[in-house]
Amino acid sequence: MYNTYFFSSMAKQTPPIITLLSLLILFFMISITTEGTEKSSYGYDSRKLFVFGDSYVDTGNFLNSPSYKPPYGITFPHHPSGRFSDGRVLTDYIAASSLNIKSPAPYSLRNSSDLQFGINFAYGGTGVFDTSLKGPNMTTQIDTFEELIKQNIYNKSEIDSSFALVSVAGNDYFQYFFKDGKSLKDVLVFGASIIKQLSINLKRIHSIGINKIAIGLQEPTGCLPVITKTYDKCNDTINLLFMKHNEMLLQAVEDLNKESESVFVATLDLYKSFLSVIETMQKNSTVENVLRPCCVPESSSYECGSVDERGQKKYSLCDKPELSFFWDAFHPTQNGWDAVYKMVRTSLSL
After folding, report:
1. CB 226 within 8 A of CB 194
2. Can you give the pTM of this predicted structure?
3. Strand pairing of 163-167 and 49-53?
């Protein structure tokens, strides 16, 4: 604490011009100290976040995607930013609210000044394995991360105290089941291969030095608008398939944590949180159909953000995205992600 008697005594003995100069110097020093405190509290010296996976956590890596076209980003940051939503996605909430840092820079847009918060390698449309979009699958994303570590971009203590977020596998199933037309029995066998590779990938991230990893369980895919537009309700058969995936993933995570000296993988239950938020909105929201997306293409030939050769919109947009859970056929709105994050954040022991 400052000695107030000392300051009052000095005021009596010091000429006015010296007192004024002293006050100016003191004010300058306090300003510097305050500025430094604000930077530190926002995470300039905090842990880093490394993100792997698909569009649920991608914040701008898929440069030629619809997410870089209006109306994506109308809520945040008020222009298209490469997020598959009208605003923030799960990555943004975990970075800001759980780690007190800015969202890490997308790898595609990185520069040296952005790396202090970590790096986002997630790429919309990709999976554990290769998908039709040809973006970097999870293994390739980890390869890139490992190459950066070998270049000493981060030191060991930075990696040891960092956190990894993983959201992946949905596109693998869509590719295999819906596009390739495989049977349900085939999909279950394929699911086992997904879990096996996911376990390898999680162990690899851990071996690089990340001691805390959170992986999202699969959402109730049968409730996504791409499915419900045909059934007008959640498809229970498809949801059962993804419940089976989640059961296998939970067992794999349990096995990984048993093999390690400490628990290093946590799961985020996107399945239950999606269903819970949807059910709550169905009861309390003024939205006519919670399963309907805010941004609706005119036909199956178009997607959200499509325009014709004259620049005319080929989609319709709801008046209030903040009242919708789904933004487009696959992805939640910022409002949706906010509600989901509030339900899964207790799983994050950061």
Report:
1. no
2. 0.86
3. parallel
